[in-house]
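Morning F.,

Quick status update on the modeling queue. The single chain you submitted on Monday has been processed. Sequence for confirmation:
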Amino acid sequence: MSEKLFIFDTTLRDGEQSPGCSMNLEEKLVMARQLDRLGVDILEAGFPIASQGDFDAVSAISAEVRRPTIAALARANQLDIDRAWAALKDAAKPRIHTFLATSDIHLKYKLRKTREEVLKMIAWAVGHASSLCQDVEFSPEDAGRTDRSYLIECCHAAVEAGATVLNLPDTVGYCLEPEYEMMFADVKANVPGIENVVLSTHTHNDLGLAVANTLAGVRGGARQVECTINGIGERAGNAALEEVVMAVFVRRDVEPVHTDIRTEELYTASQLLTRLTGMQVQRNKAIVGRNAFAHEAGIHQDGYLKNAITYEIISPETVGMPADHIVLGKHSGRHALANRFRELGYELTKPEIERAYELFTRLADRKKNVYDEDLIGIVNEGFEHIPELYTLKLLESVSSSEGRSTATVELERDGQAFRESATAEGPCDAAFRAIDRITGIPGKVVDFSVHSVSAGADSTAEVSVRSRFQDKEFSGKSLSCNVVEAAARAYLQSANKGVYEIRRAVKQAASEAGSVHENELVDRLLPGGY
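Structure tokens below.
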């Protein structure tokens, strides 16, 4: 009989550690809500000791998201564990996840401790966590390169101290499938009390084996898998949640497990994470890539048209990917637009429909047909949760192959218009510099990408920009038939986030100082009070 496989999502913790994938508090809440809709069993919300932002995110998610278990990471010491518990205290189902390296490589070069010292640290840390929280997960970091007999000792110490979950991570993506499977089988066979503990996988993709190793761990006895949306994470990433879930779903004839994941929410989760982080999914990415259900070769098209099962083992609808290519144009009304969004999996509120319709008509005026990809892009652009301090009212750009480009930008803030011009090597950079002159806070573009989201000569360009303002990075994304306009809007989106966060930080510092009115300090330190 099929057993339940628990899905532990660490997108907001390990995934966010991926360079360029950091999220602010509101963005983490938005992603956590989607992970809840997706049906994950455990949601690892962050590493509370790492920063005040991580602590606040874990606290906020604990207070709002009530169905899944909320986990927080902590090193094996009192300060980390107490901090994690303080962040989790309002969770309906809290879990402290503590870890300590166990491989000889880590003991010698990182911890500089003996095996005996580490065993005592494991027992104390898990015991202390268990005194605070009924649900405690322990991870022997770098388990994949840990001496097997010593790994069993470490697991035994954790179980005796009260661990309810044992996670055996392949921290550096070193293991091959037979090795990883055997590690679980050995721990399951040799650790006393293991029958009362859930075994968990945690794999990395350094050799491209994260998903394969996860499934190997399941065959070895794991009944929890740790993974991330789109496979984001340290270095080459983690096991991709959507790939693990669909592998189990499609090959349930040989994998004796099932999940409670709502697979039709997978594509929405993937797209949302892309919008929040600016980290694009490769076109040929399994399950959620734009080419995952595309058929170009004639023989494939012929077979697909006769019966889709000839070349598709999953239907796009199963994972929530748009499959209906009904085309909307500029004469389509709000009702048709709302209905199409509903078919695409987006239940929009009345104000959201109005915002989407505004963006839709703006786009439809410029191109003959608006496709599903365009509509998804509209949702991705149109519903930011950071206040839009400045809005773009005008962009004029002049460029030449022989020389520099000039852009004139008009922004509006609180009903007041601001206009500036700038010259740079390219039209996009010129627009960015003009925006900087208005906001008064110059940014540095650290990542810039453009791709087409629909077919044809009038294809819509989607531009993603990641910019650094002061010491923080913020992402923006926009789409338009005009690449320079899309770039300007994307950069302005990131600038709005940067201005908002800088303003918030200054106001918080002023409030804490108490010596000067916060708005006065904002006005002193930021141009125009922003």
